[in-house]
Design a protein that fits this description.
This protein folds into two domains: 44-132, Roll (Pdz3 Domain); 136-331, Alpha-Beta Complex (2-enoyl-CoA Hydratase, Chain A, domain 1). Helix 6 runs parallel beside helix 7. The model has no long low-confidence stretch (mean pLDDT 91). The protein is globular. By secondary structure, the chain is of the alpha+beta class. The strands form four sheets. Strands 3, 4, 5, 6, 7 and 8 form a six-stranded antiparallel sheet that branches. It has a six-stranded mixed sheet with strand order 10-11-12-15-16-19, with helices on both faces. Strands 1, 13, 14, 17 and 18 form a five-stranded antiparallel sheet that branches. The protein is 27% helix and 30% strand. The chain starts with 5 loop residues before the first helix and ends with a helix.
Length: 332
């Protein structure tokens, strides 16, 4: 029939085929979606600035990105998006939802949100913007305690985290607050690079378990520059995947104290297969476990000290989790 776009039909067929695998982390991406996914890993995109996942057939906000329209609009980790511009998200795939939410700078999208603790769904209007996310930021919170935010685990993280360490060493820091709140993850090998700077000796960073193969024990480099610096790790519901690898290992080795709330619970490993036409397939290849062989899939990691961050705290621009971290390091 006239007017049919066979290319789009083939993309739709591929999505349908992959969706039958029934794994929320295995997805087909057409060429446009593949480019947007790559741009997001590079910290460059246009949209609202939020990492999304499908969990139990619900579209969940894992983490609003720092300094994004999503943050400005008050979106929070764990929010469930039930409609986009009035259209239900039921039976909508992850990347279809992402495509609907993303858009050119200056345009608006209306999300209908269900939030724990609120009786009814509510609408949030968000104006899309260009977003460039720094992988690592560092700032002193006292004369000698440094707040290091890990916002992503991408190709620039290793260098940027190394620069943060050099600054702390040069200025003789007495403690570090490693903040992975709202960090939905990234490259697994970068999480091992982070742990290599904090754990003394060659230690197991993560156990990767693939069906039909022997366990792969991935280890740190043994060249840590901050093996003894007092450390607090801030976590929340938006800390997922590579963030949980870092937090889980540091907790297992009692290298630092975790403060905040329960993490997201993503304990699987994905690979990306790029296809000739520019499309790609992201598929699950393994599960990962902490050095003590803990699975965090759908469970998350419980912090050592639980501190909530409420809507009221957000309104008055107070960060009780960061305050608790500073207090812990000052009084240890």
């Amino acid at each position: 029939p006239a007017g049919l776009d066979f290319q789009q039909m083939s993309y739709g067929a591929a999505r349908g085929f992959v969706s039958e695998i029934d794994d929320p982390y295995t997805v087909y991406m057409d060429p446009i979606e593949s480019k947007e996914f790559a741009d997001g890993l590079d910290g460059k995109l246009e949209g609202i600035g939020a990492e999304l996942e499908m969990k139990e057939n619900q579209l969940i906000i894992v983490a609003p990105l720092k300094n994004s329209p999503a943050i400005a609009a008050g979106l929070r980790p764990g929010d469930i998006i039930v409609a986009i511009d009035g259209e239900s998200t039921q039976d909508v795939g992850l990347f279809e939802a992402v495509t609907k939410i993303r858009g050119p700078k200056g345009t608006q999208v209306i999300l209908t949100i269900v939030r724990e603790g609120r009786d009814e769904a509510f609408d949030v209007a968000i104006t899309r913007d260009s977003i460039t996310l720094e992988s690592v930021t560092v700032e002193p919170v006292t004369d000698t305690i440094y707040h290091v935010s890990l916002n992503q685990f991408n190709d620039t993280t290793r260098r940027e985290f190394g620069n943060a360490i050099e600054q702390i060493l040069l200025e003789r820091g007495s403690g570090m607050i490693l903040d992975v709140r709202g960090n939905g993850g990234g490259f697994l090998d970068i999480s091992i690079d982070i742990l290599s700077e904090l754990l003394e000796g060659e230690k197991i960073a993560v156990i990767v378990r693939e069906r039909g193969k022997e366990d792969d024990f991935l280890k740190t480099s043994g060249n840590a520059r901050l093996p003894d610096l007092p450390l607090v790790v801030l976590v929340d519901k938006g800390s997922a995947s590579a963030s949980e690898i870092v937090a889980g290992a540091l907790q297992d080795y009692k290298r630092g104290i975790l403060i905040g709330t329960q993490t997201f619970g993503k304990g699987t490993v994905q690979e990306i297969k790029r296809l000739q036409d520019g499309s790609s397939l992201r598929f699950t290849v393994a599960e990962w476990f902490t050095p003590k062989d803990r699975s965090i899939e759908e469970l998350g990691i419980m912090p050592d000290i639980e501190v909530e961050f409420t809507e009221e705290d957000l309104k008055v621009e107070r960060d009780p989790q960061l305050e608790a971290a500073v207090e812990y390091l000052q009084n240890r």
